[in-house]
Write a structure and sequence with these properties.
The complex is a heterodimer of chains A (304) and B (290). In chain A, helix 5 packs antiparallel against helix 12, helix 5 crosses helix 15 and helix 15 runs antiparallel to helix 16. Helix content of chain A is 74%, strand content 0%. Chain A folds into 2 domains: 43 residues, no CATH class; 228 residues, MetI-like fold (Orthogonal Bundle), CATH 1.10.3720.10. In chain A, 36% of the residues are buried. The longest helix of chain A is centred in the first third of the chain and has 34 residues. With 304 residues, chain A is mostly helical. The radius of gyration of chain A is 25 Å and the shape is globular. Chain B is mostly helical and 290 residues long. Chain B has 13 helices and no strands. Chain B is globular. Classes of the chains: A mainly alpha (304), B mainly alpha (290). At the A-B interface, helix 1, helix 2, helix 5, helix 6 and helix 7 of A face helix 1, helix 4, helix 5, helix 6 and helix 9 of B.
């Protein structure tokens, strides 16, 4: 009884904090948790007029149909290709650029370079797509003008499947590389300065200091970032492939998100589209857990 | 420091390479500006690189004369202002309340929020909810359903946690309520993080294309990105050399297109330098300890 009153008094004590959390609770229930329940339509014959609750259950019918569809597997393949290609280039490059920025002595030069490198992160994909046409177009794109002036044939960056993947990777790297350095630069400022001084006195070369001090110091950040990125392999933003892509390269630019959009919104197949989303979520969670286990296995902190 | 006097070859090369990377990052922007301000013949001859030739601002005059652009600008400004305000308030409330260590139920509530990062209903279930709330084809649909970003919440909570506790404790003893402490003590100390998170939200709302594509139907409610997309990519394939338009109109539209891009990006470029000094610090705080 007394305990109850104590708890009551405690909660009364925090009444303002709970009041602040009321709109947060409402927001998450309405816009996140109710849609989570809506996932059940992946197991239903969804009927717009009956709604989510009253539509009849149909078991795994939608999934069986989905897994038998070769367009779905194409979208999965393309998602993995684009994500891995981007990761392969951007991951090492981000670390290299961070290390280079870390070596800069002039504070002004460093600040200006950083500001410029972060800038593309704040630009919308619609604008990036417009710029990419400027840069990569066959007829008057800047890059092809250089290529042709050097005596080679123009490269079909936007209309050939393989070259389009290259274009996609370049656009992504251009947009996010600077932003990606922030986390490494933060980690690099945490490296103990006295280690460098000791190594310098012992006659270690710059390269040796990099290999034996700098990299080991930021190793856990590198591993964490890698796990996070790999666990997102099945997730891809819709805007980049939809906007940079065009009808000619649908064979590689049709990814899970754009496919979900086309099926769900353009063709109003709600159950199918939701099933893809569920497949994606479950896949992501499994990979995340596995990646986390792996990180702990090799002696890192893990992320969950 | 002893290493300072040595400006080695390596450092110089490092600087040069970074300069080149910076230039590559900046070049497309300069290219857009150059195209938008260059003369007809210069664009036609393909001479324009990163500075305007035959400087003129006709394209800007033309683009700013279009009501479509102004309508889209208005919709985007409304969404960005209301959205950023709402997002900041909610994020501050959530982050502050859940930064108080002995709040009963704090852990459960935090997990309740974090869980949405890993599992979501996805596109269609969210779409159904938004539609059934009568928000389809309203500007409300562009900010209410995504008002709180979990990452921003984490960054802000970390910032609040790292504030010296003694200040709030003293105020508690004096009988101040948590609401008073938040507004009188915590927020004045949190300007950098509010500027940072505010910038993130504002940029996200300004740039969002997908939500508008999903929820907006009527052309008069088109946001800037939606309008931009329809202006720039009408007859989508002309970027791949399959252009059948007369060459004159093609060049005209090129300057016009780039002026449109410049106009729609300008607001971000204007606020960016002012907030830049805050957000690097802000993100570092969140990312190191988050």
């Amino acid at each position: 009884m007394k305990d109850h009153r104590k708890l009551g008094a405690k909660i009364w004590n925090y009444r303002w904090l709970y009041l602040m959390l009321v709109p947060i609770l409402a927001y998450y229930v309405i816009f996140k948790y109710i849609p989570m329940y809506g996932v059940t339509i992946a197991f239903k014959d969804y009927n717009v007029f009956k709604g989510v609750l009253a539509s009849p259950w149909c078991g795994f019918k939608v999934f069986n149909k989905l897994f038998a569809n070769k367009n779905f597997w194409h979208a999965v393949r393309n998602t993995l290709i684009l994500n891995f290609a981007t990761l392969l280039v951007s991951f090492p490059l981000t670390i290299i650029v961070s290390l280079m920025l870390n070596e800069v002595r002039s504070a002004l030069f460093k600040r200006v370079t950083q500001s410029i490198l972060y800038l593309p992160h704040f630009i919308s994909w619609v604008v990036v797509a417009a710029i990419s046409v400027n840069m990569f177009s066959v007829t008057d794109g800047t890059i092809n003008m250089i290529v042709e002036r050097a005596g080679f044939k123009a490269i079909p960056f936007l209309s050939d499947n393989t070259w389009w993947v290259v274009t996609y990777v370049i656009c992504n790297v251009w947009k996010e590389i600077g932003w990606g350095t922030i986390i490494y630069l933060a980690a690099l400022t945490g490296v103990d300065e006295s280690l460098y001084e000791a190594a310098y006195l012992d006659g270690a070369t710059k390269f040796q200091r990099l290999i034996y001090i700098t990299l080991p110091s930021i190793k856990s950040v590198i591993v964490t970032m890698l796990i996070l990125q790999i666990s997102k392999m099945m997730t891809i933003g819709l805007e980049a492939p939809l906007l940079i892509g065009n009808k000619k390269v649908l064979g590689v630019s049709e990814v899970i998100s754009t496919y979900t959009y086309r099926i769900g919104i353009e063709r109003a197949k709600y159950s199918d589209s939701t099933a893809i989303g569920l497949f994606q979520s479950v896949f992501n969670i499994i990979v995340l857990v596995l990646a986390d286990k792996f990180a702990k296995l090799i002696g890192e902190d893990g992320i969950i | 420091m002893t290493t300072k006097k040595k400006l080695s070859v390596g450092l110089v090369i490092n600087g040069i390479v970074l300069f080149i990377i910076g230039f590559i990052c900046l070049y497309p922007f300069l290219n857009v500006l150059a195209y938008s301000m260059s003369g007809y013949n210069a664009v036609l001859s393909g001479k324009v690189t990163f500075y305007p030739i035959d400087f003129n601002i006709d394209a800007y005059r033309q683009i700013l004369g279009k009501t479509q652009i102004w309508l889209a600008m208005r919709a985007t400004v409304i969404v960005t202002l209301l959205g950023t305000a709402l997002s900041l308030i909610l994020t501050i409330f959530a982050a502050y309340a859940l930064s108080i260590k002995d709040l009963p139920g704090r852990k459960a509530f935090t997990i309740f929020i974090l869980f949405t990062m890993y599992f979501s209903g996805g596109m269609i279930p969210t779409f159904i909810v938004v539609k059934s709330l009568g928000m389809y084809d309203t500007l409300l649909s562009l900010f209410l359903p995504q008002a709180i970003n979990v990452f921003n919440f984490i960054v802000m909570r970390t910032f609040f946690r790292n504030l010296p506790e003694s200040l709030s404790e003293a105020a508690r003893i004096d009988g101040a309520s948590y609401m008073t402490i938040l507004f009188k003590i915590v927020l004045p100390l949190s300007i950098p993080i509010i500027a940072t998170i505010g910038l993130f939200y504002a940029v996200a709302y300004w740039n969002t294309y997908f939500d508008a594509l999903l929820y907006i139907k009527s052309p008069e409610k088109y946001t800037l990105q939606l309008r931009l997309k329809s202006l720039l990519f009408e007859g989508e394939l002309n970027n791949s050399g399959a252009n059948v338009e007369g060459i004159g109109t093609q060049v005209m539209t090129q300057s016009l297109k780039m002026a449109t891009v410049a106009v729609s990006t300008m607001p971000i470029l204007v606020v960016y330098p002012w907030l830049q000094k805050y957000f690097v610090k802000g993100v570092m705080i969140g990312s190191v300890k988050g």
